[in-house]
Structure formats: C-alpha cells, structure tokens
Structure prediction request, 247 residues.
Amino acid sequence: MTEAEIYEFDLNGYIVYRDLLSAGEVKKMNDLLDTEFKKQDVQDVHSFSFLSLDHCFLDLMAHPRMLRIIRTMIGDWLRLDHAYGLQMDTGTVDRGQTRPNLHGGPRTDNGEHLYQWFDGNMYNGLIVAIYALKDVNPGDGGFICVPGSHKANMHYKPPVDSPLVVNPSLRAGDMLIFTEALVHGTTTWTSSKQRRSLLYKYSPGHSTWSAADNLEPIRALAQNDLQRDLLRPPSVGSRSALDFPKI
Ligand SMILES: O=C(O)CCC(=O)C(=O)O
Prediction:
C-alpha cells in the first residue's frame, strides 16, 4: 500500500481500488454464476457459495495485487477464513432476506474484530475484500458503513439512516476492502438493476472466525502452493509466512 492508501484506510476503515478485475474476468464470473443459479433453479438467490464452481474463483482468492494490499493490513501469515457471494434485487429485503442492519465494530466477536497499530505496523482481525460483479450506483443500497468507526471508543451504533452512514459506489470490477472492526452492514437494495458481489474474508494465520473445518473441501481443490497455503487451518507453531507473488 502507498502512504496515501494507508492514510485513507486508517482514516476510514475501508478503501476502494478501481478496476481490480477486467471486463472479461467480470463477464466470465457472472456467466458462471448465471449458469449455476439456472441449474439449481433457485428463486431469490441472496447469499451463495461459489469457491468450488471454477478455478477462477480460487485464483481470485490469491489475486497478487489484493494480497499485496492485505499483507500490509494483516501481515505475512494471512489465511482465507471464508468466502460467500451476495446478490440483491429490488424487493428482496421486503421478502425477508436482509434486514437493514449495522454490525461489527471494534472488539466485537470476542475481540476478534480489531484494528491496532504497534511499533509502526497495522494489525487487523478479519479483513474483507468485496469484489463488485455489478455496479453499485449512489443510493442503490447494499454495503453500508460508518467511516472511522473502527477507531471508535464506544459500542454505540448509529441508526442505519444516520448521516454518519455511507453507501460506497462501485463499478463492476472494483474491490472494496474493509476491516470488520468497522461498523458496517447492509441496507435495502433500491436499484432496478441487480447487486452481485463476491466477499473473500481473510484472517491472521493464528486466528479463525468461522469453523476452520469448513475449508477442508476447498483445500482439496487448490491448484498451487500459494492457494494451498492460503487455505491452511489456523496455527502459530512452525507456521511459515506466505510466499507472496511478485507483481
Ligand atoms: O456487503 C454487505 O452487504 C455486508 C457485508 C457484511 O455485513 C459483512 O461482511 O459482515
């Protein structure tokens, strides 16, 4: 991360990187998901699994530019914790799939959600990379957060419609990274177009948020050492740093 990027992330608790994915990569992923949802014949897809659908999703887990960024946030031992997709259409909130909500914040989930500096380095618990596979225009809804709340000193959460809450806009292919120590959540999707996002969540190598066993079936699909290392269960003793790809 550049000094300017570190400043922005430290200030707000989230940062947007434009055009992480090419239009071709976005199209391929959308096509794969469209085909899968059609095959499953599911109505009102909301939260979905996707890592095992195609190798491109494991490649994205190890995206070199993204890894270089979150290395600054989490350190050399980072691991994938879990991943899922979110899809929202106008009205799905009203059908009960998502209540507008804010959650997370400093020291929540038994202290796992943390944001700290020590001796010139940044330390985080769970970090989320959201890839937009479809545009999010101003006021569309979906992901919301309270900028700066990762450094708040109270558990207080403002109401979802507070002026302190923002709804970042994204173009398909953009990546938004946030710390779960940020107060964040989801609000009603109002656009006539669909929201579709992939969320990859990373933890420090010693820690896990979700049950680590959940990744076992995915580990078997890893194509190379980097992917296998990212999918390792949490541990401290004898753990080696990731071999970060050169960019
Ligand atoms: O992207 C969203 O709508 C919310 C994501 C979220 O709440 C989370 O990652 O904990």
Notes: The pocket of 2-oxoglutaric acid is lined by residues 86, 128, 130, 142-143, 184-186, 197, 199 (CB under 6 Å).
